[in-house]
Amino acid sequence: MTTQTIETAPRVTGISSQAPAAEALVALINMFGHLPTPYIVIHSGTSELFLQLDSPSAFEAWRAALQIAPSGVEIRSNGHESWLKTWGVFRGVPVQLTGFGLSVQAVAS
């Protein structure tokens, strides 16, 4: 009887799994430090950036900087508030961009 050992690549765990998102964030800060300050989220276990902005104009500044097409922007609403949402990629890292501050009345018009 022969025994074969199969080695697999080590699974990246811990904070190092977020390195690509952190590196992309540093690049965003260096390139776009003049843009409005977003609320930034990097969830554990993912290599994605979530940028949340307080106004449509701040959202638009970031959308344009990240070269995300206007046609990719969605308007979301839950009946009490509305927001803009879109997705892009920066330096190989998925980026979700969310812009709050829309009035429900403006969306309904």
Task: Describe the structure in your own words.
- The chain is an alpha+beta fold.
- The chain contains 3 helices and 5 strands.
- A hairpin with a 4-residue loop joins strand 3 and strand 4.
- The protein starts with 18 loop residues before the first helix and ends with a helix.
Q: What share of residues are in beta strands?
A: 25-35%
Uncertain runs are none
Helix content: 25-40%
Mean pLDDT: 87
Shape: globular
Order of helices and strands: HEEHEEEH
Structural class: alpha+beta
The beta-strand count equals: 5
- The largest sheet has its strands arranged as 1-2-5-4-3
**What's the N-to-C terminus distance?**
75 Å
- Please describe the biggest sheet, giving its number of strands, its sense, and whether it closes into a barrel: 5 strands, mixed
What's the Cα radius of gyration?
Answer: 19 Å
Number of helices: 3
How would you briefly describe this protein structure?
This protein is of the alpha+beta class.
